[in-house]
Design brief:
Alpha-lytic protease prodomain-like, Alpha-Beta Plaits, 3-stranded mixed beta sheet, 10 helices, 16% strand
């Protein structure tokens, strides 16, 4: 089963379960003349709507690339995630607005056995459905499914709060609906904002996942002719479409044919193992002739914890020039550290000029 088929199947299950709850609650609500249960049935319709949005988003995101959108339509999934998160936010705000007045003007509601059973069933069903949908979403990296599962889960929490308040009301004749409702609604509002932020970060281009970055670099370094992998940059065009580039350090004796053959093998391996398309593989040449200078440079770098890494060490003899890339922590005083490193390496090997190329760490 493809990723899109899993999204559609899971969403259809969500729609069917919610529609069953709608029919069940609406029928009982009308029979026992309970406005609360009837309104809860309407709420389940919005949950079914989130599943429908997920299906539409998955279908549109699965469209093949065309002339207008050569990178495909994968990012549409993020828009469906935003819409679902907005629905969750709306539900949280609505719950807050309904619960806040009840703190100051509590009503002791008369619950029937039937209504309590309905609420209890809804709690169990919503928790099971929410966990199932969210687990599938995490398994296939679908933020829309994760958001939809969270929507169902939070709906279950609201129903649970109603059930607890009902039981307390029956035994102690006091109403805690307002207090519990406010607490739960605040949790839902915060969670929805977090979902929106996470999706927006993906749309803007957040940092590369550390585990994925290390795994890709490790796979590249498994080739016998590769001494290191650096400057990995990944561009996300949807959960299933990731492209990027990387620099690899190889022996300077390799021919252009050797490098092309190696590049092809690296691209194929990374796509097969990580589903990442490397559209560009740059080359750093390694030469052991000036290993002593490189060793001294590494010793100097070790004095500065703000420096994460140096690479691309190259000696241009005809220009008496040495260049290298240096990654400095974002929070550090970059220029100050560069001048200190330049001063120390220059004092050890004054016969060369030095140029540091600023580099940045794009992964965690």
């Amino acid at each position: 089963m493809s990723r899109q088929e899993k999204i559609v199947k899971t969403s259809i299950i969500g729609i069917v379960v919610n529609l069953i709850l709608v029919a069940f609650k609406a029928t009982i609500g009308i029979l026992v003349n309970s406005i609360a249960i009837t309104l809860d049935a309407v709420n389940n319709l919005t949950d079914a709507l989130s599943s429908i949005i997920t299906i539409i988003g998955a279908k549109l995101a699965g469209k093949a690339p065309d002339e207008s959108h050569p990178y495909g339509y994968g990012r549409i999934e993020y828009f469906s995630s935003i819409i679902i998160a907005a629905i969750v936010l709306w539900a949280g705000i609505t719950a807050f607005m309904e619960s806040w007045p009840k703190i100051f003007n509590p009503d002791v509601t008369s619950y029937t056995t039937v209504s309590l059973i309905i609420i209890a069933v809804a709690v169990v069903v919503k928790f099971v459905l929410g966990k199932y949908v969210k687990n599938v979403g995490e398994e296939i990296n679908s933020q829309a499914l994760i958001a939809s599962g969270s929507d169902a889960f939070f709906d279950g929490i609201l129903s649970l709060a109603t059930l607890i308040a009902a039981i307390i009301s029956l035994f102690y004749h006091i109403s805690l609906e307002g207090i519990l409702g406010v607490i739960i609604s605040v949790v839902i509002i915060k969670a929805s904002i977090d979902m929106i932020k996470e999706t927006v970060d993906s749309m803007l281009g957040d940092r590369i996942d550390s585990e994925l970055s290390h795994s890709i670099k490790q796979s590249i370094c498994e080739f016998p002719n590769v001494y290191g992998a650096y400057d990995l940059i990944l561009h996300n065009y949807g959960p299933e479409s990731m492209q990027g580039s990387v620099h690899v350090e190889v022996d300077d004796s390799l021919t252009a044919v050797d490098i092309q053959r190696l590049s092809r093998k690296i691209s194929a391996k990374i796509y097969d193992e990580h589903n990442v398309l490397l559209t560009g593989i740059g080359i750093y040449a390694k030469n052991e002739k000036y290993g002593n200078i490189r060793s001294d440079l590494n010793s100097i770098i070790g004095k500065y914890p703000e420096i994460k890494e140096t690479h691309a060490f190259m000696v241009y003899e005809d220009e008496n020039l040495i260049t290298f890339d240096m990654i400095v922590d974002f929070s550090a005083e970059r220029e100050d550290i560069k001048q200190k490193v330049l001063g120390e390496i220059k004092s050890k090997h004054p016969e060369f000029n030095y140029y540091i190329i600023d580099d940045y760490d794009f992964s965690d």
